[in-house]
Amino acid sequence: WNADQPGDPATLSDGRLSGAKAFASGAGLLSHALVPVDVDGGRQLLLIDLTETPPAIDRSWWRVSGMQRSETHLARWDGAALPPEALIGQPGDYVREPWFSGGAIRFAAVQAGGIAGVVDRTRDHLVTAGRDGDPHQRARLADLYRAAQGAADAVARAAANWRVDRPDDTLAHVAAARAAVYAAGEAVLTLAQAAVGVQAMFLDHPLNAALANLTVYLRQPAPDLQRDRAGAAVAAGLLTPTL
User: Fold this and answer.
1) How far apart, in whole angstroms, are the C-alpha atoms of residue 23 and residue 216?
2) Of 126, 169, 186, 204, whose CB has the highest number of CB atoms within 10 Å?
3) pLDDT band with cut points at 50, 70 and 90 for residue 40
């Protein structure tokens, strides 16, 4: 649970945890959570036993159009005592590069999977409805495939170039992958809705939840910054087109 609640960030002082985390997915369901907090010396990662140190959970906060079942809530502690073994590593370890920014490849992969899921459901709908023979729908299917495969390829390339001994190269490829996946996701959302039409808006349609969930999950932090980083890497010669 990385995201601090604005105005009430989680902190650790004299072995006691106070403050709140936003976007605490699985709150109320998980047995343990990895929770970064600010301490003297930097960002400290904690492994918290949520049974022994349960937070107060605000379930009224998560009112979104997608990913409702992720149980993403506000979690807050007020001076909760933590044992020394709750500390993982040293202050600053959590935000070391390339692991911190480069680790974003994990959710880019999840996004790419969500994109593929939307493509699958769109294809299934068109085939079942007998609309896959329409040339306009076939064009959309081709565009959907291109976007989804491009997202998957971008993640695979970033994974293949993930190297601790070349952090600048690693971070450039991860930024490029994030930018590519984000653009592919936006394109797929538009194409899928155009292909299926209003039927995709019905709550019981298989595509409805996939569209809503992907719309929410695409909104990871700073997508514009990733495109800027990728562009800077191209200018510096770190990113070049290859076959």
Assistant:
1) 12
2) 126
3) confident
d(CA 3, CA 25): 11
| Nearest-angstrom CA–CA distance, 213 and 195 | 18
Tokens 């403050």 -> residue:
19
Residue 15 lies in a domain: yes
42: left (phi over 0), alpha (psi -120 to 50) or beta: left
54 and 159 belong to one structural domain = no
Would the pTM count as exceeding 0.90? yes
Helices (H), 5-160: 99-102, 105-128, 135-160
| Span between the terminal Cα atoms of the chain, in Å | 38
- Tens-digit pLDDT profile for residues 51-67: 999 999 999 999 999 99
Q: Angle, to 10 degrees, between the axis of helix 167-196 and the axis of helix 223-235?
A: 130
pLDDT tens-digit series, residues 102-155: 999 999 999 999 999 999 999 999 999 999 999 999 999 999 999 999 999 999
- Please state the domain count of the chain: 2
